Amino acid sequence: MTRTEFMQGNTACAEGALAAGCRFFGGYPITPSTEIAEHMALRLPKMGGVFIQMEDEIASIAAVIGASWTGAMAMTATSGPGFSLMMENIGYAVMTETPCVIVNVQRGGPSTGQPTLSAQGDMLQCRFGSHGDYSVIALSPASVQEMFDLTVEAFNLAERFRSPVFLMADEIIGHMRERVIIPDHVPSNQRKPYEPGSLPFRAGEDLVPGFPAFGKGYGVHVTGLTHDERGYPCATSPKLHEDLVKRLVGKVEGARGSITSCDILNPDAEVVFVSYGAPSRTVQQVLHDHPDDNIGHLRLKMVWPFAEMVLARFTNAEAFIVPEQNLGQIAREIERHTDKDVVTVPKLGGDLHTPGELYAIVENLK
Amino acid sequence: MSEEDWLRQDRLPHIFCAGCGNGTVINCTLSAVEQIGWKRQETVFVSGIGCSSRAPGYISTDSLHTTHGRALAFATGIKLANPQLNIVVFTGDGDLAAIGGNHFIHACRRNIDLTVVCLNNMIYGMTGGQGSPTTPMGGLSTTTPYGSGEPAFDLCGLATAAGANYVARWTSYHVRELTRAILTGLENPGFSFIESLVQCPTNYGRRNRFKQVADQIEYFKSHTILVEKAARMREKGEMIPPEMILAGEFVRRNRPALGVRP
Amino acid sequence: MRLQIDERRCKGCNLCTLVCPYRIFKPGKRANRRGIVVPELDRPERCANCRLRHLYGRTLCGNCQMICPDQAISWKEDEEPVPKKVAIEY
Ligand SMILES: Cc1ncc(C[n+]2csc(CCOP(=O)(O)OP(=O)(O)O)c2C)c(N)n1
Ligand code: SF4
Ligand code: SF4
Ligand code: SF4
Ligand SMILES: [Mg+2]
């Protein structure tokens, strides 16, 4: 039965994961994400799942990837310092095409920074933080409801694309309490099964190979080295490497138009806010306070892969205003894709922009 | 089935140098796996990065060749998510004790049901012969050109102190004893740690007075002393020369273990 | 049973020459086409495994195969084995 509850963002994230079918959680405590681990520790054992507190975040993501190779849906949750530690194995998940979900409840950085305050400073790190060329999927929730919904979505995308998927939350959304509607059933995608006898790393048109889970007698070799379609290491062929990396990037980037998820308000507006995560809530307030100003709003629920085509939906746009809790990380990406003005509105320190601050920018542009 | 069926025939010969001890330890491990009667489809080999960690790539079961130092953390995830699987981890001295040291002690502490075979060649083989945490005092390597000035780790002592259920050490000369130790490790629930000293003729032997492959094997043969004998000598107050390799079983016990097949 | 070295796998390390109680393996003298000096076999019919495997129904000795790092040593059936009953005398 669908139920309505009043809960914290981090709890909603954990509930979303359980609803999606997550049965393995490996993590290491870190503010402001710890409640996710705590809730999983409470709930997973009763659902036949496994919770383990690992010795650090490197081990956490490693255990998650290992669990995923048995066919389990698996996740970890962390914040900046732990996220930095995970980077090498995130690249490993990309290279080995291992479905997994990584939640980052962002805090102020660099370094230990502001453990209890909100930020969005890891948006480029999640896109580019591991070495080499690759592409990832990252979602950004702006409400407690979305902590639930987008976690479900993250699992579905991870399964479908055999890729790590990030839930890039922030301290504000993680610690906020709101009403959440928890449905009885959530949509679920299972990873495409492997066809016995076929080459384990050969992909069809969707560029995603079937998943040869461990323990079924397939005898698959999985390596982070550049590998051929049999999964065997072959790190010296330029052509093989190029084809593999282009397929890994292509399977995500090629789908960006069809999988992207965003809210579009007032598409005929001349001044358009682009936001994701907590700052979206201030933008919503500005639109609410000034209904006659025809202000546009593009709220990204999926930040990566960046679907630049949605910008064109604002046919009259003269300027994009981008409030972020960083020094302009996604604003840079928008600049790459438009010849309109891009106004970056950075905010550091943990506070949100105020509606007045943002409206002043709109007035200025008029 | 025979040991040959556990090999990926299409990948042989392997990349190891002539005379490298890694191949011998693969033989011993597969012989033990064959003797215990595990099925291919329920067995997984896991490794980190290094020459030694290339071993699973030559074994025909499911195999996960992971990142440097992290094999035990990956293996922990596999084992907990599916305790029906039998898991053997191959790791090198650098992989296990340097970059992976933290995972090592915690896997021992959890006493998770894995069998870990450490191919200790006392050097970083794959990267061309740099010093490792097990390079002996005075040992020559490209990063200890004047002889290593740091004491080496006693991996078996570490595993014992950290809580592993089974701990043994042999060398690539002692193929029978090593096979038996690995078999005992496979049988024993909980964390089983088998260290095998192996020759790395290319990057260790060559620089450390073992001109021929055989020289280091002869050294293993002549410089091994059984744990029991060492204990007797100690009781009698006799000195055990520091260069002697203590071999045999250090621990076999029944601490509560994690991830044991229900 | 016939003892054999797979020349496609052998890397010429000579470890087999160290462990055979019958000294059947002798260091080779000439490099093969791959540039590898494969050991020579001196009267391999003396090998314990060749002689006794069928009698006991399991691998005997096997030192050379076990230590060979390159999985190059094996035994080949050369005739139909004749199962023989052995009475072990104490
Ligand atoms: C994070 C990281 N650091 C460094 C390396 C480079 N590296 C590859 S193998 C290796 C050492 C391997 O030594 P060991 O584990 O003893 O294995 P061996 O090659 O001696 O068998 C190093 C440092 C790496 N692959 N990853
Ligand atoms: S470098 Fe050393 S450890 Fe690596 S394959 Fe060669 S002999 Fe073996
Ligand atoms: S031990 Fe094996 S690889 Fe080495 S020389 Fe003998 S047959 Fe060849
Ligand atoms: S099995 Fe034993 S006797 Fe036979 S060749 Fe090998 S080492 Fe010699
Ligand atoms: Mg080493």
Task: Describe the protein's topology.
The complex is a heterotrimer of chains A (366), B (262) and C (90).
Chain A lengths: L2 E6 H12 L3 E4 L6 H10 L6 E4 L3 H12 L5 E5 L1 H17 L3 E9 L5 E5 L4 H6 L8 E3 L4 H18 L2 E7 H5 L1 E6 L38 E3 L14 H16 L2 H4 L2 E4 L5 E5 L3 H11 L5 E6 L1 E3 L14 E6 L4 H9 L3 E6 L8 H11 L1
Parallel strand pairs in A: 2-3, 2-4, 4-5, 5-8, 7-8, 12-13, 12-15, 15-16
Antiparallel strand pairs in A: 1-9, 5-6, 7-14, 11-13
Helix pairs in contact in A: 1-2, 1-6, 3-4, 10-12
Chain B lengths: L21 H15 L6 E5 L14 E4 L5 H11 L4 E7 H7 L1 H10 L4 E6 L34 H8 L3 E6 L3 H13 L4 E6 L15 H10 L1 E3 H9 L9 E8 L10
Parallel strand pairs in B: 1-2, 1-3, 3-4, 4-6, 5-6, 7-8
Antiparallel strand pairs in B: 5-8
Chain C lengths: L1 E4 L9 H5 L5 E2 L13 E2 L6 H9 L6 H5 L5 E4 L14
Antiparallel strand pairs in C: 1-4, 2-3
The complex binds thiamine diphosphate, iron/sulfur cluster (3 copies) and magnesium ion.
Helix content of chain C: 10-25%
Radius of gyration of chain C from CA coordinates = 14 Å
> Number of DSSP strands of chain A?
16
Biggest interface, CB < 8 A = A-B, 40 and 33 residues
Q: Residue ranges of chain A: pLDDT <50 for 5 or more in a row?
A: none
Characterization of the model:
The complex is a heterotrimer of chains A (366), B (262) and C (90). Chain A is α/β, with parallel strands linked by helices and 366 residues long. Chain A has 12 helices and 16 strands. Helix content of chain A is 36%, strand content 22%. In chain A, the strands form 3 sheets. In chain A, strands 2, 3, 4, 5, 6, 7, 8 and 14 form an 8-stranded mixed β-sheet that branches. Chain A has a 5-stranded mixed β-sheet with strand order 11-13-12-15-16, with helices on both faces. In chain A, α1 crosses α2, α1 packs parallel to α6 and α10 packs across α12. The N and C termini of chain A lie far apart (50 Å). With 262 residues, chain B is of the alpha/beta class. Chain B has a single domain (3-7, 21-252), classed as Thiamin diphosphate (ThDP)-binding fold, Pyr/PP domains (Rossmann fold), CATH 3.40.50. Chain B is globular, with a radius of gyration of 17 Å. The longest helix of chain C is centred in the middle third of the chain and has 9 residues, at 48-56. The mean pLDDT of chain C is 90. Chain A binds chain B through residues 23-24, 26, 50, 52, 54-56, 58-60, 62-72, 74, 88-89, 92, 214-225, 232-233, and chain B through 8, 11, 40-42, 44, 46, 56-57, 60-67, 70, 73-82, 84-85, 102-103, 106. β10 (221-223) of chain A pairs parallel with β2 of chain B. Bound molecules: thiamine diphosphate (TPP), iron/sulfur cluster (SF4) (3 copies) and magnesium ion (MG).
